[in-house]
Design a protein that fits this description.
The chain has a two-stranded antiparallel ribbon with strand order 1-2. It is built from 16 helices and 2 strands. By secondary structure, the protein is mainly alpha-helical. About 5% of the residues have low confidence. A hairpin with a 6-residue loop joins strand 1 and strand 2. The longest helix has about 30 residues.
Length: about 350
């Protein structure tokens, strides 16, 4: 069954139905992922981007909301499949294409920036690229494994998830992508729990929608104003060492939660109002189902840009034009790849993470 996210009513689902409202939301979010990286790499050329108001707004909610949607959409696989089937299916969907694009990234880096194949850190560098470049995919996969493991506590699942969230968030792990996993896991669990009891939560939200949205909007605005460089998970590493770091981590979670609530409401309303618009439908029908390949391709492109030595700063007009061109190119290439390989069994699985029959 599908939920009309505006009316809250349950509507019938056919074999080929997709939740276009969520696809539209995912499509907008992946655009914001690309936009955030364009701000960092092109507009600010890796200097001072933390202070950009646009960058801050995007990073307050885009990945947390993405992860909440991932948890929401994973509910059926988490509850209906056995542990082995669920993990195997998710690994095939996420890790196989990630390995392909990471291998392509390393090949391109070796071709453009050649180095000795026998360098001692070659393997370590590949592992770092494999984990760090596509950290969100790893985070989604690990959150899936944790939630599936905890789902054995069927009767006490909400409480078990709550305890696991506390333990994960407070875990003193600061290396590699562990801080990012700590940041994402609560949102994955929230999305999963909402899907599990969506009719009840939809009823509650419908009854108190105005109050909830106003409260979330005020909280998001206050958090936006208080947000500083140390509020980003990349800088505070989601670790609590003293009172100030505790404030930073708490602000990060509260701000992201409030902003995510506001933005999911805004985006679902936008879909309801503009669903007949060609641009809106393009985002929902083309970009929404292509978020994985878009994420992997943009990650590959921007990781390559890490190896570029920036020269003199372009003027703002040139930087804006370059950002628009690069962003459009990433989207065009991703859609072209998806269209080209969607009906080729092995390539569609390898590059997109889905079998041909799953792609319209």
């Amino acid at each position: 069954m599908l939920i009309d996210h505006v009316t809250g009513k349950v509507v019938p689902e056919t074999a080929h139905d997709r939740d276009l409202a969520l696809d539209f939301t995912k499509g907008v979010l992946i655009i914001l992922v690309i936009a955030g990286h364009l701000i960092q790499y092109i507009l600010y050329q890796n200097e001072g981007f933390w202070d950009s108001a646009c960058f801050k707004w995007i990073y307050m909610f885009h990945m947390p909301l993405f992860m909440a949607i991932s948890g929401y959409l994973s509910c059926r696989a988490l509850l209906a499949k056995s542990f082995t089937q669920a993990i195997g299916s998710r690994a095939t969907q996420l890790l196989v294409p990630m390995l392909f694009w990471c291998s392509l990234l390393e090949s391109l880096k070796f071709a453009v920036f050649p180095r000795s194949a026998g360098a001692p850190d070659t393997v370590l560098q590949f592992l770092n690229e494999f984990v760090g470049t596509y950290w969100f995919v790893w985070a989604a996969f690990i959150c899936f494994i944790l939630t599936k493991t905890i789902s054995i506590f069927n009767r006490w699942l909400p409480w078990a998830l709550f305890v696991s969230v506390i333990l994960v968030v407070l875990a003193p792990l600061t290396f590699s992508i562990f801080p990012l996993i700590k940041y994402m896991y609560p949102f994955f669990c929230l999305g999963f729990l909402f899907a599990q009891s969506r009719e009840r939560w939809t009823s509650i939200m419908r009854s108190h929608r105005v109050f909830l949205i106003m409260s979330a909007s005020i909280a998001a605005m206050m958090c936006f104003l208080a947000w500083r460089n140390d509020t980003y998970v990349y800088n505070n590493l989601a670790v609590v060492q003293d009172l100030q770091s505790a404030k930073n981590v708490l602000l990060m979670f509260l701000g992201s939660a409030a902003a995510s609530v506001v933005m999911i409401e805004v985006l679902l309303r936008c879909w309801n109002i503009g669903r007949s618009n060609r641009v809106v439908r393009f985002i929902a029908e083309k970009l929404g189902p292509s978020t994985l390949v878009l994420y992997l391709i943009q990650g590959t492109v921007f990781r390559l840009m890490d190896s570029i030595q920036y020269g003199e700063l372009w003027d703002p007009t040139m930087r804006s034009a370059a950002a628009a061109f690069l962003g459009t190119t990433i989207v065009a290439v991703a859609l072209a790849v998806r269209w080209t390989v969607r009906d080729i069994p092995y390539l569609s699985q390898l590059m997109l993470g889905v079998p041909p029959r799953s792609i319209r």
